[in-house]
Amino acid sequence: MQNLMKNLLAPCALGTLMLLGSLGCETGDLEDENFLDDGQTQSPDDDMEPLAGATCADNSSFVDAQGYRCADWVGYDCTQAVEKYSYTSAQESSILANCPKSCNKCSTDLCPNDPNKTQPGQCGCGTPDTDSDGDGTANCKDGCPSDPKKTAPGLCGCGKAEGTCSTTCADNTSFVDAQGYKCSGWVGYDCTRAAEEYGYTAAQETQILQNCKKTCNQCSTGTDNCPNDPNKTEPGLCGCGVPEGTCSGSAYNVYYG
Questions:
Q1: Whole-angstrom Cα distance, residue 91 to residue 180?
Q2: Under a CB-based contact definition with an 8 Å cutoff, are residues 151 and 143 in contact?
Q3: pLDDT in tens, 19-38
C-alpha cells in the first residue's frame, strides 16, 4: 500500500503527503500506515467494532488485485477502495470479505445462526424477543404475556390486579418452594414447622406461609379459631393444638430428603 501511495504522492516534497483526490500536500510520515486522509494519525484499533469472541481474523493468504495483503490496509478505509484507490467494486468487496480485522469490519453478530437476531437478548439466539403486551418483559420470560401490568399470575391470575380479585383465600399456583414442592405438596403438613422439622430456613418457611395461605391455613378470618394454640389460627385437619401432618388420618405424604 505504501508503494501505491508513494507513486501517487511523488510530486510532494520529502516528508509530506499529497492526499488522494486533493491538490495539496500534507505533512506526514510516508511510512506511517496510520496516516489518515485528514492529516491525523490514529491507532489501527481506534473505532474498531467489538469482536464476536476471538474468531475475527484476516485471511493471511489473501492478496488483493493490486498486490497488497490485509496488513497493508491497516489505517486505510477499505470501503473507499473504489473511490480513492482505483479498485473495482468486486475487488473492494473481496478486500472487505478477506480482511475484516484490518478493515475494522469484524462482525458483532452474537447469533450467527439466527438470521433475525445479532444479540441473544432476553430469550437467547433462535427465539424471538417478542413482547406481546409491551411491558418490557419478553414472552419467554413473562408469566402473563398478554397482561402489561403483570409478569406472573400471582394470587388473582393474569388480567386481574392483585387485591381486586375475590377475597376467597387462595394459594399462589405458580409458587414452588426451596425444595421443589408446590403448595399442594404441603396439604396435611404444618407449614409453620418447615424450618424446625423439614430442613427449610426461616426465610423459606415464611415464603411458604405467604404463598400457600389456603393450604397452610393462613387465611385471615379476622378471628383466631385456635386462641390457645400459638401456632395455629384455624383447626385445619388435625385440630387446634395438634400440628398438621402429625395426626392420624392425614391423607397426604411429602417425601423430604
A1: 61
A2: yes
A3: 333 334 443 433 344 333 44
